[in-house]
């Protein structure tokens, strides 16, 4: 190899290394199947650091299975998954502890422990990963997370059955944030919320993502969420991620599911709502008076 070729190879290697360091989650060639039912085959996906990536796809396309594979609850039969540069497939729980502490998960439906109060739910991951933290500090952390997610302080001693749907989601979010994660997984966080509650939850997610510098993997069917807070969207179909990009980039593709989803009546309504919000913001003077 000539000196010039060596220099070019080194530059390429460095460029790749810089590119890689921008990636929070790197999924390559994974296959997931349940018996004869193949859910993913040769699926690739990159999630960039600091982005909110929306993950969409028809029901049963394997969005939750993909999330479970990334967080180690489902072992792919083929392929590799890296989180923050660490190989995850086949790692034992103890071995991957340092990485597992760096993410928080809000499962579909909230998945709060019904026999524990909100504060006790939030304290579960703290007890699990930091058993030496004393009760008083644990309580303080829980109270802080409760405030952070917009719940009233009185929610702490309540049981999940005493909360509204929106409050349950926020309690689940508070638990997901218990360990100050860098990476947040949200599985259909606004499902079942009324539109105002859903918009408030989205806004909270965006605010937290910006202030805490989080990377967010967000599974949703909610077009308003995609339009209002997602930086990019990944589309699952045909056992793969068939496209990733901004909504404008996806709209330029002529895949029938993508066109139907974003350009159907609901997609058009969501676009119209976003441009109305934009116009309103542009017409509002900086001091907020109309
Ligand atoms: N533990 C399991 N055992 C057998 N099949 C499973 C298991 N988990 C998921 N599946 C199947 O895998 C497929 C994908 O499920 P998944 O929950 O990931 O879909 P999804 O895209 O998240 O759907 P939805 O949008 O309806 O929530 C479904 O057909 C489901 O029945």
TrEMBL record:
An example Gene Ontology molecular-function term: ATP binding
Family matches, as Gene3D superfamilies: P-loop containing nucleotide triphosphate hydrolases
Keywords: ATP-binding, Nucleotide-binding, Transport
Residue span(s) of domain ABC transporter: 25-263
Coiled coil location: none
Keyword Transport: yes
PANTHER family referenced in this protein's UniProt entry, alphabetically: PROTEIN TRIGALACTOSYLDIACYLGLYCEROL 3, CHLOROPLASTIC
Protein's name according to its UniProt entry: Phospholipid/cholesterol/gamma-HCH transport system ATP-binding protein
Source organism of the structure: Sphingobium xenophagum
């Amino acid at each position: 190899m000539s000196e010039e070729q060596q220099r070019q190879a080194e530059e390429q290697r460095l460029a790749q290394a810089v590119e890689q360091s921008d990636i929070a989650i790197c999924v390559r060639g994974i296959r997931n199947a349940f018996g004869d039912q193949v859910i993913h085959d040769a699926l690739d996906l990159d999630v960039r650091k600091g982005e909110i990536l929306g993950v969409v796809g028809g029901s049963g396309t394997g969005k939750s299975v993909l999330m479970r594979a990334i967080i180690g609850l489902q072992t792919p039969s083929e392929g590799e998954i890296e989180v923050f540069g660490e190989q995850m497939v086949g790692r034992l729980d103890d071995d991957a502890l340092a990485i597992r502490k760096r993410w928080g998960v809000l499962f579909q439906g909230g998945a709060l422990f019904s026999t524990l109060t909100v504060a006790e739910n939030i304290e579960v991951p703290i007890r699990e990963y930091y058993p030496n933290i004393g009760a008083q500090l644990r309580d303080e952390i829980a109270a802080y997370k409760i405030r952070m997610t917009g719940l009233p302080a009185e929610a702490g001693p309540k049981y999940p059955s005493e909360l509204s749907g929106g409050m349950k989601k926020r309690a689940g979010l508070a638990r997901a944030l218990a360990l100050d994660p860098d990476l947040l997984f949200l599985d259909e966080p606004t499902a079942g919320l009324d539109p105002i509650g859903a918009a408030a939850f989205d806004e909270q997610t965006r605010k937290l993502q910006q202030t805490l510098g989080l990377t967010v993997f967000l599974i949703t069917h909610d077009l308003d969420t995609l339009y209002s807070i997602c930086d990019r969207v990944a589309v699952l179909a045909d056992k793969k991620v068939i496209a990733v990009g901004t909504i404008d980039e996806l709209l330029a593709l002529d895949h029938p599911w993508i066109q139907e989803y974003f350009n159907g009546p609901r997609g058009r309504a969501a676009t119209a709502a976003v441009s109305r919000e934009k116009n309103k913001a542009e017409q509002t003077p900086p001091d907020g008076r109309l």
